[in-house]
Structure formats: C-alpha cells, structure tokens
Design brief:
The protein is α+β, with helices and mostly antiparallel strands and 444 residues long. The strands form 2 sheets. Strands 1, 4, 5, 6, 7, 8, 9, 10, 11, 12, 13 and 14 form a 12-stranded mixed beta sheet that branches. A two-stranded antiparallel sheet has the order 2-3. A hairpin with a 4-residue loop joins strand 8 and strand 9. Helix 6 crosses helix 8 and helix 10 runs antiparallel to helix 11. It is globular.
Length: 444
C-alpha cells in the first residue's frame, strides 16, 4: 500500500534544519552560487597539473562546435596524429564532414531495415519505441566509423570542409528524423498491407534518394576524386593528383582497421570479464563492421592503454564526461566536487550500480595522448578533447586515474598489445548480443 508524506514527517525535517547551525549559511551559498561552485574543491587543481611522464605531441585540438560528433573527431584525430608524423604535417585535419555525411546516409538505411525487421510488432513494443525515439543522431562508436571508412574512405578537411549544418547539427537532425519517422509509417503500412518485396524495395529506394538530396543540400555532396595539395612543416610544396577517398586512406593513413579493437570495462553481473559483446540494432552500415566489445578488468583496461601510449600512439576512449568534470579548467577528477560534504548526504554508488540504474553511461569520446606514471602506476592522464582551444589547457584536459576507474568505459587499442588469451577471445569468440538499450550501446 502506498504511503503519503505526513505532516509529522515534514515537521521533523523542518526541525532538523532549524537546529543545524550551518543550514542557513549553506542555503545562501548554494542558492546563490549553485551546487557545483559551492561544492568545488580547488585543491584538486594542484594534483591535476598538466605534466606527464609520457606526453605525445599531437598539435592543436579540433572543434566539433555544436554537434555530437565527438566519436568521429576523436577517431579521426588518432589517424591524423599518425598521418601528421609520417608526412610532416602538424595541425592537419581530416574531414569530419565527409564521414558525417556517409554516417547519416547509412544510418537512414540502417533505420529503414530495423523498421522492416520490427514491422510485425506494435508501436507500443519496446523495440519499436526505442527505434522511434531517435531514428538517427550525431553520435556513434569506433566500429561504426571503421565501417564508414572501409566503405567510403576519408578525405582531407580541405576537400570537404565544415558547413553550417555539420557544425550546428540541431536543424539537420530534426529535419532528418522527421523524414525517417514519416518513412517508418509508410514502410510499416506496406508490410501490414502485404506489399511485395519489390514494392517495399522501390519505396525504400525513393526514400534513400530523398535522404541523399537532404544531406547534399545540408552538408555538401562528397567528393569522389580530388587532388591533395599542401605545404609540409618545412614549407615544401606537394600535390598528389587523382586520389579517391579510399586511395587517400590507403596511402596517407594506411591502417588495417581490423587491427584496432574495442575494449570495455563494464563491471555488471550480466557481462562477465574476458568475454565479447555486441548490441542489437547498434550500427550504421548494413552488412558492415559489427560493433564488438571485449570486456576486461580495469587493471587490464589501463595497461592496454599505457602500452599503446608507450609505443607512441594515441588512444581513442569513451567516458561519461559530465561526471565530476570542470569544463573550463579542463579537469576530470572524482575529488573536484564534494557534494557529500556539502549536503551531508552519501551519494556514493559503484560503477556497476551506476550502469544498472541509469546514472552513468558513455556520453563522450576523446583521445588519450599522455599518462603520468609514478613507480610504474598511472596517476593522471592527458586528454585531447574536441571542444576547441578555449577550455582546459589549449583544449587539453587532465583526468585523474581515479576518474578513469569510475567513468571510463571504452578504449580502442591495436590488438598487438593484447595478451595471447585476450587476443584469442577477441578474435574467435562469438559475442553475446545485448539488448538495444544496454548502456554499452550508448553513442558518444
């Protein structure tokens, strides 16, 4: 039986505050300054000095502006770091708009296929409701960008620069999702009316043509062939003619993307360590690269990242950036805000509890470009963000090792750094399929 709040309860709560000599002082401070400013412990800044024993020189940070493409910026940053070193090209950027175009185009097709696959379910079913809540968005995961590059390649930013809609994506996302939901109505009706496969295919083909036009007007049409013209850091002129996006990737990045694998730390009961997982309905390219995660302990998670940094290569990672994070100072530290002391309330939960109860999930992707090792153990990490140079230290953040323990969920590493047992599991084990709404399916 439900119980209401009684007048006696309220009176006790009021009396408890009235007899607390600090209550009014704290009320004035919190109500005027806000919870974060009042609970901030600036002693954290001393510990988070941006000096690291391993520190990769990766140049200026990029700026995703008012878009949710952090996963794409972070992944392309790891590739441009390699390209810049090989070709003496600091401050060079790959086109985030190019991969954004093809990601949104492929996500539309992926959405249509999922609509058709669930067309026999009522709109009240959880899967259909999940699909319709966000038909597509800016976010994604590492494997999804690999799927785009494997199919379409990449281009320099000079070949397909940013547009209004790539840098400020709200209007485009709203318009595209309006169309996709309308198309879902049409596709579900065709299935209900027992239309032929040919009729459904023709309807979907028309829809995709309209999506291509919408994206071309909003983002510009992607180049199919181009010349790469540049001056290197020694002011030497270069021109490479007649490239395609795929030949550009093969020549200037030249990575085997199958070498780079997703490692997660999800300490929940449903995901035993040293096993692989995928997420139903998570992806962008139909029949493209599957999202596949290898779940490991936090100790293994960090050691893999350290090995890659020691080898001189930056590390893509995903985290819950809004937790205990000070954007302007560029500090991510579990000690930065002390809400427990401010309110005299125990807010502590475990990492697993936060995942299970919806308090935390991966919300942002960035790049690890350094780590401070003291007696062989990490104390803090250097982070390249994609929010421009006006935050942090010219766009770089400092993350405490304790913060990584609690709020980092994914790193991408070259499988050459995996110990033999984990490498075998990653390569051979068929992944367990998680529900579409599992937190490991969150898009950064």
């Amino acid at each position: 039986m439900s119980k209401e709040i009684t007048a006696d309860q309220t009176a006790r709560y009021q009396q408890a505050l009235a007899t607390d000599p600090t209550a009014k002082v704290l009320e004035r401070a919190v109500s005027h300054q806000g919870i974060l400013a009042t609970s901030a412990d600036y002693a954290s800044e001393t510990d988070m000095t941006p000096v690291f024993s391993i520190d990769l020189d990766t140049g200026k940070v990029a700026n995703q502006k008012q878009s949710g493409r952090c996963w794409m910026f972070a992944a392309l940053n790891t590739m441009r770091h390699h390209l810049a070193e090989q070709f003496n090209l600091s401050d060079f950027e790959l086109s985030q708009n190019y991969t954004n175009f093809w990601d949104k185009f492929e996500k539309a097709n992926y959405f249509y296929e999922n609509v058709l696959a669930t067309a026999d379910q009522p709109t009240s079913s959880r899967k259909v409701a999940f699909l319709m809540a966000t038909p597509q968005q800016d976010g994604g995961q590492w494997d999804m960008l690999c799927a785009i590059i494997q199919k379409y390649g990449i281009v320099p930013k000079s070949v397909m620069p940013e547009t209004y809609n790539s840098s400020k994506s709200n209007e485009l996302n709203g318009t595209l999702n309006l169309k996709l939901r309308k198309d879902a109505v049409t596709l579900r009706k065709l299935v209900a009316d027992k239309a032929s496969d040919a009729e459904i295919a023709a309807a979907k083909d028309k829809m995709l043509g309209e999506v291509y036009r919408l994206l071309s007007f909003s983002l510009g049409e992607p180049a199919t062939e181009f010349d790469f013209e540049y001056r290197d850091d020694d002011k030497q002129y270069h021109i490479d003619k007649g490239l395609t996006p795929k030949t550009f990737f093969d020549k200037y990045v030249n990575w085997d993307l199958t070498d780079f694998v997703s490692i997660i730390n999800a300490p929940t009961d449903d995901k035993p360590y040293n096993h692989t997982y995928t997420v139903e309905m998570l992806g962008n390219v139909v029949n493209g690269r599957q999202v596949k995660h290898l779940n490991v302990t936090m100790a293994d998670f960090k050691q893999l990242a350290i090995k890659q940094l020691q080898a001189g290569q930056s590390v893509w990672f995903g985290c819950d950036v809004g937790q205990s994070s000070e954007r302007q100072k560029g500090i991510m530290d579990t000690k930065f805000y002390d809400k427990d002391a401010l309110f005299n309330i125990d807010f502590a939960t475990t990492k697993a509890e936060r995942l299970d109860y919806g308090e935390s999930m991966m919300t942002h992707a960035m790049v690890l470009t350094g780590v401070d090792l003291v007696d062989g153990q990490p104390t803090k990490w250097k982070v390249e963000n994609s929010w421009g140079e006006k935050v942090g230290t010219k766009g770089y953040f400092v993350m405490s090792d304790a913060w990584m323990d609690e709020y980092c969920y994914q790193v991408v590493v070259n499988k050459e750094f995996l110990p033999a047992n984990l490498k075998q599991i990653q390569e051979t084990e068929e992944p367990t399929v998680l529900a579409p709404w599992d937190p490991m399916g969150a898009l950064a």
